[in-house]
Design brief:
six-stranded parallel sheet; 16 helices; binds iron/sulfur cluster; single chain; 19% strand; alpha/beta
């Protein structure tokens, strides 16, 4: 079979990334002011991530002898099968393309991803099949030549070591980047685990990926070696949200990177609870230079109501201070407008972010993604049912303490007042000089 993996993106001025928000996607919309636009354009030029699962799917098909290609915004004319990743932010244009492909070609069309999993009925009219859940197991069956019909359920892969490494050679890896967190290129992300042990009720990632599963250190190191040999990779990002959940595993990965002399600068995401100074030291020796952490809010009550298990403020300060001392960049993620937020708690969160003064501070608007418990909780108060607005930067439900305008203003204020401060400008310049 000839298979096209088709990524469809609308032409908007916002930075659209379909692999964020657990695969629902996001479209960075900071505000209308001059400084807000400046931050937006910086983000657009710095961050470009591939859609992970497409790399895994390409590998499965290719290993079964199929011809696989990757296309962006192009109707494939000679494919037997077109697989499209769904997203909440761009679902309308995805449907337009699917409709055209069905009308103008003989290809079968299938959708994958979290949004199509929770809202398959939206896609069904223009698709031959929708794969619910992580798609690899269903794709293995399709690779045997069995094209399914309708909505099918795929089972999550329990042993992640059995998967072939993503086949990045059909993707434009020279385009991918993660600045300012990882400035070395070629850059590629890697998944060392899937799922999460926590259950934050708003989390789209948890809704799709479920229970935590890990790859073995040896399997991960083999992939990094392969990436070095094949693409001369210099920068890496472990995209899984709990890279250090198993501290011994993280330590072993670092030790193997050193032993194999892989000479790579890498970043990871994790939770403060699974970091300590000793572990940071070992990771640093192997090239760890950037850390992504979710802080969400500085108000413990706001977090508790969102079932977010947060580390203490003391622990957060200790880890971030230590990272900064070692020269490890930190990106902190915040959510504005969680159900218990008030204007006061949001302003406190913004001030807390400034105190931490991390190289990246990301302020999202609380968004009830379909498929999450949060969505079920607030669905009666949702006033915007156009899912393409669920971009993590736009209020869509009636907040008990804040109007839509207040939230939008607070978001723009958060970004602009954060990045255009003398203290931040100074730390940015210092980072650049280093
Ligand atoms: S810690 Fe919470 S927000 Fe982060 S991945 Fe896990 S469930 Fe989601």
């Amino acid at each position: 079979m000839k298979i096209t993996l088709l990524n469809v993106l609308s032409e908007r001025e916002e930075c659209i990334n379909k692999d964020t928000m657990g695969g629902y996607g996001s479209a960075t919309k900071i505000g209308n002011g001059f400084f807000a636009k400046l931050i937006e354009s910086k983000k657009k030029s710095g961050v470009k991530l591939p859609i992970f699962v497409l790399g895994y799917i390409a590998a499965i098909f290719s290993n079964k002898g199929h011809i696989v290609e990757y296309k962006i915004n192009e109707i494939p004319r000679d494919s037997d099968l077109v697989i499209m990743p769904s997203s909440i932010v761009d679902y309308k244009i995805e449907l337009e393309y699917a409709k055209k492909i069905k009308e103008e070609t003989n290809a079968n069309v299938g959708f994958i991803g979290p949004f199509a999993s929770v809202k398959p009925e939206i896609y069904l009219k223009y698709a031959d099949f929708i794969i619910k859940n992580e798609p690899e197991q269903a794709i293995m069956n399709i690779a045997e030549g069995k094209i399914p019909k309708g909505i099918i359920e795929s089972q999550p892969i329990k042993d992640l070591d059995i998967l072939h490494y993503p086949k990045w050679d059909i993707f434009p890896i020279e385009d991918y980047g993660y600045s300012p967190m990882v400035n070395k290129k070629p850059f590629i992300p890697i998944l060392s685990s899937r799922g999460c042990i926590f259950g934050c009720n708003y989390c789209p990632y948890k809704a799709y990926y479920g229970k935590w599963r890990q790859r073995s250190p040896e399997n991960i190191i083999k992939e990094i070696k392969y990436l070095k040999e094949k693409f001369n990779i210099k920068g890496l990002l472990f995209r899984d949200p709990l890279f250090t959940y198993d501290k011994n595993r993280a330590k072993k990965i670092a030790e193997l990177i050193i032993k194999e002399n892989l000479d790579i600068e890498w970043a990871c995401e994790t939770h403060f609870d699974f970091l300590d100074k000793e572990l940071i030291d070992i990771l640093y020796s192997s090239g760890f230079r950037s850390l992504n952490v979710g802080i969400e809010s500085s108000d413990q009550e706001v977090l508790k109501k969102a079932t977010r298990k947060s580390a203490s403020i003391e622990k957060q300060n200790e880890i971030i201070d230590y990272c900064h001392k070692k020269g490890i960049r930190v990106a902190a993620f915040y959510i504005l407008g969680l159900p218990e937020d008030t204007e006061k708690s949001i302003l406190q969160t913004i001030n807390y972010a400034k105190k931490l003064n991390t190289i990246v501070a990301q302020f999202f608007i609380s968004t009830p993604f379909p498929g999450t418990n949060f969505y079920e909780q607030v669905k009666e108060t949702i006033y915007d049912n156009d899912f393409s607005h669920y971009n993590s930067y736009t209020p869509v439900f009636l907040h008990k303490n804040l109007t839509k305008e207040q939230l939008l203003n607070l978001k723009e204020k958060a970004f602009v007042s954060y990045y255009f401060r003398p203290k931040y400008v100074l730390r940015f310049i210092k980072d650049k000089i280093k």
